[in-house]
Design goal:
Zn(2+) binds at residues 274, 278, 352. This protein has 16 helices and four strands. The chain has helices at 3-28, 44-77, 80-89, 95-128, 136-167, 172-195, 209-220, 257-262, 265-280, 283-305, 309-313, 322-332, 334-362, 369-380, 389-395, 401-414; strands at residues 202-204, 228-231, 242-245, 252-256. A four-stranded mixed β-sheet has the order 1-2-4-3. The termini are far apart.
């Protein structure tokens, strides 16, 4: 094993151990006593179910994580990458087609191996706790649609990247960066109108008190809201959510039908206000800029390491190639990605606090409604109310609900 192999191996094992420790700490942080803030929201049974749900999901992750680790290490050290590469090279398709087949085969194999675990998660765990509404037909239709989109859109992008790094010389990374940015922006623009409706039905919110109050709120904060949509989340789960997506004339706010069923009008307005806050505070733009910079740095570093023989020796490869180099560099880059992801989680949690503050400062009718909305969401989704800080540090893009509520109450007192 050379230096590259040791870096990748240590990173993979360290990541596994780190997640294992965070999971164990998270289980130990579960508390039998319901936090006082949630008295009257959770009954004893629902609170016990939320703890059981956390335990079951954690045990599930123990199994899936060790399985993924075992498969990856076995494939690596048994020479699987080289065997696959030699088999594909025997067809003499050329560097681009061979690259698509190599990368596509690895992705497809990962999808197939994950099917039993995904089925168990949805049809056993989610079913047990009353969340699942997915049918086998919907499950496999979603998977097929995702694969088709991956082949068409992902295949086009990967083909371009492979072509640049194969033929474009020292500035290949810059060309690949530019094309990837264009791809990201295009997907961001077309997804709400073309891609997302392939999986869910978006229905304009009908006339009535809810629509009137949300549109009035949007006008009061000068937010260009063309329309509101209800998404049929109940097609797959009873869990509730809301999100902002898209850009330009295709940007939209979507409320899950499960959310509309369970929240009051005031609470729904506060949820929308939170999503509008992300837009008005430029969180979405900031995330896009960070993504663009991150992509550029990644492509530049890829150009530096792509032709290092040692990187291919680490995986027992007989031949070097751009397509295998893309995969291996992704593994080599993982330590930096781990660190960056932690900082991005911190950044995201900070933005969630800011969006909460924006909501309570701009909703005139009932600024306390956001607290009620968060409580109901936590109860209906069986959220863990007392996650361990280390687990939050590694995995949470949103602050724990008790922290959010405490911060909202503090902001209300000082405003």
């Amino acid at each position: 094993m050379n230096t590259y192999a040791w870096i990748i191996l240590v990173t993979v094992i360290f990541s596994y151990v780190l997640n294992l420790i965070s999971d164990i700490l998270n289980l130990r942080a579960l508390k039998d006593q319901l936090p006082e803030e949630f008295h009257g929201v959770y009954d004893e049974e629902s609170y016990q179910n939320s703890q059981k749900y956390t335990r079951v999901l954690t045990r599930y992750s123990f199994v899936t994580d060790i399985f993924d680790l075992a498969v990856f290490l076995s494939f690596w050290f048994l020479g699987g990458f080289n065997y696959l590469d030699q088999y594909i090279r025997s067809f003499e398709f050329g560097p681009i087609a061979s690259g698509l087949l190599f990368i596509g085969t690895l992705l497809f194999a990962g999808q197939i191996l994950s099917i039993p675990f995904r089925l168990y998660r949805i049809f056993v765990i989610e079913e047990k706790f009353g969340f699942n509404k997915t049918t086998l037909k919907v499950f496999f239709a979603d998977m097929l649609k995702g694969m088709i989109l991956g082949i068409i859109l992902g295949g086009a992008l990967i083909s371009g990247i492979l072509a640049f790094f194969t033929y474009a010389g020292p500035y290949a990374w810059a060309y690949a960066w530019g094309v990837t940015i264009a791809f990201m922006l295009t997907i961001q623009y077309i997804a709400p109108a073309w891609i997302m409706p392939m999986f869910n039905k978006f229905t304009p919110l009908e006339e009535g008190e809810l629509r009137e109050k949300i549109m009035h709120y949007a006008k009061s904060v000068d937010f260009p809201l063309k329309d509101l949509y209800i998404i049929d989340g109940s097609k797959r789960s009873t869990k509730a959510n809301a999100f902002f997506t898209g850009m330009g004339k295709n940007k939209r706010i979507a409320l899950f039908d499960t959310l509309v069923e369970k929240q009051s009008v005031a609470e729904l307005v506060s949820v929308v206000a939170h999503e509008v806050g992300h837009f008005k505070l430029k969180h979405i733009f900031q995330g896009l800029v960070i993504g663009i910079i991150h992509t550029g740095i990644t492509f530049y570093l890829l150009s530096v390491f792509l032709n290092h023989q040692g990187l291919f020796d680490a995986f027992y490869m007989q031949n070097t190639s751009v397509y295998a180099g893309l995969i291996f560099f992704g593994m080599l880059f993982k330590p930096i990605e781990m660190i960056l992801s932690i900082f991005m989680q911190i950044f995201s949690r900070k933005n969630e606090f800011a969006a909460d503050r924006f909501a309570i400062e701009t909703v005139e009718e009932d600024p306390h409604a956001l607290i009620g909305a968060l409580k109901k969401l936590s109860r209906d989704n069986l959220s863990n109310l007392t996650p361990h800080p280390f687990y939050v540090f590694l995995h949470y893009s949103h602050p724990p609900v008790l922290q959010r509520i405490a911060t909202i109450r503090s902001n209300l007192q000082t405003s």
